């Protein structure tokens, strides 16, 4: 499984339920998927359909009740907690709706933080290239509280790109932005992913954003429909 050179991510009969009896929620219900390397996939569906749970399972933030997640052919849940955390830092970049920036660190420090967590040397030239690409060259020493929503999200994008992950997972990354900034941020993210050869999976409620994707996956009652 996962041998095809083009398949970067494979989900095999993934299951995650919460509660029991009448309160049973089938958040992810026997879902199987293959995602190609270098593609932008949009995940859409109503609130409560299981989109975020699916993304959390793919990212190894949550463990499934059943099934496997293979990233570059590696079954991530066969790894022990420490190894999984390490694998996640190297292979997966996360972008959240609320940015998750560290308020006491400036833009540059927030961006390079994942490298420090993994004891990896900062290649200043590479980081500068990403910072320039996302348009924050003049904001490197600014603190998060001095940034606009769009600038905060750009910082979060740079932080996700800096480790050169194989997959970037974005959960409603433009939910807090106005429509103009939203389109700017998505265009930027899409072009960054193309430039750096990464695979992007994004949860979105926005039709316009979904139309920019290479592929759209609809999640309904815990099942992925493609």
Describe this structure in words.
The protein has 226 residues and is an alpha/beta fold. It has one domain: 3-Layer(aba) Sandwich (Rossmann fold). It has helices spanning 51-58, 81-91, 107-117, 124-133, 149-161, 179-196, 207-212, and strands at residues 7-18, 25-36, 40-44, 66-71, 74-75, 92-96, 167-171, 199-203, 215-220, 223-225. Strands 6-7-8-3-9-10 form a 6-stranded mixed beta sheet, sandwiched between helices. A 4-stranded antiparallel beta sheet has the order 2-1-4-5, with helices on one face. Strand 9 and strand 10 (223-225) form a beta hairpin. The two termini are 20 Å apart.
What are the key terms here?
six-stranded mixed β-sheet, four-stranded antiparallel β-sheet, Rossmann fold, 226 residues, alpha/beta
Secondary structure: elements and pairs:
Blueprint: E1 7-18, E2 25-36, E3 40-44, H1 51-58, E4 66-71, E5 74-75, H2 81-91, E6 92-96, H3 107-117, H4 124-133, H5 149-161, E7 167-171, H6 179-196, E8 199-203, H7 207-212, E9 215-220, E10 223-225
Parallel strand pairs: 3-8, 3-9, 6-7, 7-8
Antiparallel strand pairs: 1-2, 1-4, 4-5, 9-10
Helix pairs in contact: 3-5, 5-6
């Amino acid at each position: 499984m996962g041998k095809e050179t083009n398949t970067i991510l494979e989900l095999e009969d993934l299951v995650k339920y919460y509660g029991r009896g009448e309160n049973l929620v089938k958040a992810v219900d026997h879902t199987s998927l293959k995602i190609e390397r270098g593609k932008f996939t949009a995940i859409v569906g109503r609130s409560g359909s299981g989109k975020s749970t699916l993304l959390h399972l793919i990212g190894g933030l949550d463990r499934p009740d059943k099934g496997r997640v293979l990233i570059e052919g590696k079954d991530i849940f066969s790894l022990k907690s420490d190894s999984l955390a390490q694998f996640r830092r190297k292979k997966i970049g996360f972008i959240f709706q609320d940015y998750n920036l560290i308020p006491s660190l400036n833009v540059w420090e927030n961006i390079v933080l994942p490298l420090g967590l993994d004891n990896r040397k900062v290649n200043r030239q590479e980081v500068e290239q990403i910072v320039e690409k996302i348009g924050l060259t003049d904001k490197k020493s600014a603190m998060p509280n001095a940034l606009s929503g769009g600038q905060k999200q750009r910082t979060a994008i740079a932080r996700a790109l800096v480790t050169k992950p194989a997959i970037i997972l974005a959960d409603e990354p433009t939910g807090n932005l106005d429509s103009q900034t939203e389109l700017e941020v998505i265009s930027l993210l899409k072009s960054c992913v193309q430039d750096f050869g990464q695979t992007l999976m994004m949860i979105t409620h926005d039709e316009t954003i979904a139309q920019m994707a290479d592929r759209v996956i609809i999640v309904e009652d815990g099942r992925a429909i493609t």
